Amino acid sequence: MADKRKELLANKVNDFKINGKTTLSDFVSQCVSSGGFTSSKIAVAHSILEKIVKEKNTTFLSFPADIISTGTRGVIIDMIKKGIVDVIITTTGTIDHDIARSFSNYFCGSFEYDDIKLKDMGINRLGSVFVPDESYGSLIEEFMMKQLDILYKEKKTWAPSEILARIGKNMDHQDSILSAAAEKGIPIFIPGIPDGSVGSQFWSFYETHRDFNLDILMDQHLISDIVFTSDKAGAIMIGGGISKHHTIWWNQFRGGLDYAIYITTAQEYDGSLSGAKLEEAISWKKVKPDAEFVNVYGDATVLLPIIVADFL
């Protein structure tokens, strides 16, 4: 008992020493001995990410679409360009926002603004981001229809990840998730592909081209090849929902993830997958019992840049 007590009291809490010359790297290094609460988890996430980057493993990045409407999109793009991730699992809205912001602008807004007035002015609110009508619906529709016309002439059946790679290549846009992933050969898997504006364009195109087909099971085959040939696997998961679940679901077939970083604002009391801590995933064999993992609670638009900055 005495030895255990000594072990538990080995690392004292140190005060932050911050001034105008403190770098982000310096700040993260001080988080290690800050004691709490989220700051210490930032340090753990940084340490795990360092191993993910340095060791040979397959790294999954999962995230919901909402953060792509914000400046965090730039962090995701840089993570792709730097080769930090090998596989992306997300939702269709990510493609919506990536296309829209590649050819138009979103604007800094407010959570509090009157939504009835915004509707009358042709402005959509996504949290504290304002999305003008002209930056979204018709822009995405026109872009997707042109792309689908081109690809349909080549062949009638496509895996969703395959068609997203071709669209990214055709876009050839420096600041785009689709283009960056296509250039790096990183597949983007979207298990809920019919959702969102882009999903609606697939449906709309199908209504007039009944022999057009998205082979969603081919994507399952492609991701299975990745999972079953990975000696080690790590995951950086932002938010929950289908993106997170698809990541941990597939990794259960290889015995679970070896490394995992989960950034979320959800709580587990309601039993949701988004709120489920990584500890719960161990019972489902989706995270290995001896895996290095951490749940970091807070806004990913703040936490993700802090955690990954050293590696960009």
What does this structure look like?
This protein is an alpha/beta fold and 312 residues long. The protein has a domain of 126 residues: Deoxyhypusine Synthase (3-Layer(aba) Sandwich), CATH 3.40.910. Helix 4 links the parallel strand 1 and strand 2. Helix 3 packs across helix 14, helix 4 packs parallel to helix 9 and helix 7 crosses helix 10. 48% of the residues lie in helices and 16% in strands. It starts with a helix and ends with a helix. A six-stranded parallel sheet has the order 7-2-1-9-10-11, sandwiched between helices. It contains 14 helices and eleven strands. The longest helix has 18 residues.
Outline:
The chain is an alpha/beta fold.
- H and E order: HHHEHEHEHEEHEHHEHEHEHEHEH
Q: What characteristic shape results from the CA principal axes?
A: globular
Largest sheet: 6 strands, parallel
Quaternary structure state of the chains depicted: single chain
The gyration radius over C-alpha positions equals 21 Å
**Classification by helices and strands:** alpha/beta
Q: Which homologous superfamily in CATH is the superfamily of the domain at 93-218?
A: Deoxyhypusine synthase
Strand content: 15-25%
Q: Give me the CATH fold name of the domain at 93-218.
A: Deoxyhypusine Synthase
Q: Numbering strands along the chain, what is their spatial order in the largest sheet?
A: 7-2-1-9-10-11
Query: Which ranges are low-confidence, i.e. pLDDT below 50, for 5 or more consecutive residues?
Result: none
